[in-house]
# Entry
Amino acid sequence: MGNKAREFDRLVREVFAPIYPIIAAQVMEEVGFNEGLCLDIGTGSGYLGLNIAKISDFKVVAMDNNSDSIEVLKENISQWGLDSQVKSLLGDVHDIPLATNTVQLAVSRGSMFFWDEAIVAFNEIYRVLSPKGVGFIGGGFGNLETKAAVDQEMLKRNPKWLEKLNNRIGSKEPEKWRDIVSKTNIMNFNIIHNPVEMWIVFRK
Ligand SMILES: C[S@@+](CC[C@H](N)C(=O)[O-])C[C@H]1O[C@@H](n2cnc3c(N)ncnc32)[C@H](O)[C@@H]1O
# Structure
């Protein structure tokens, strides 16, 4: 078992945990339906997918390309008592091991910043989305209050935390991602951006 996946899980439990229920509720409100297949891409320890499963009737496939994360994820699925609703999947966003048009909701938090070929990745997400399926891809920290709490804690651990955040969801980032997504097969998309988050939202 890789220590990094365990360390990340501990960090999430200690610092980030309060943001996921807020993001899950935000996703559900944006999507407007609450059943079908949800794919959580770059799920890590699984908390976004788990929180979506908890408040909806979605079946969730939680996917990551890191096998150590998948081991931690499997434990978390069981700890949450969601074995029948949430399944783990070892897979890469650049070559998603799912059939075309099968996913009603694709979510991803904090992962796209690590993708080698973002255009390929977005085209893959679009391929697996079903007609009228929704993509909700990006990064965020819930609301101003939860972000302030995360910032306070993370600055103790990493003095460059805000700099790192600025490189991911700062004021220049929406334009960069608008340019990337406009080169994909995605016809219409919208970027939600404010000091707390940046999400690329699209429908097929
Ligand atoms: C910062 S973590 C975010 C984890 C989780 N989504 C969360 O918000 O807690 C980024 C995750 O993306 C995964 N990842 C990076 N590149 C990926 C790829 N090409 N395909 C699938 N997952 C990937 C990493 O293994 C890691 O678990």
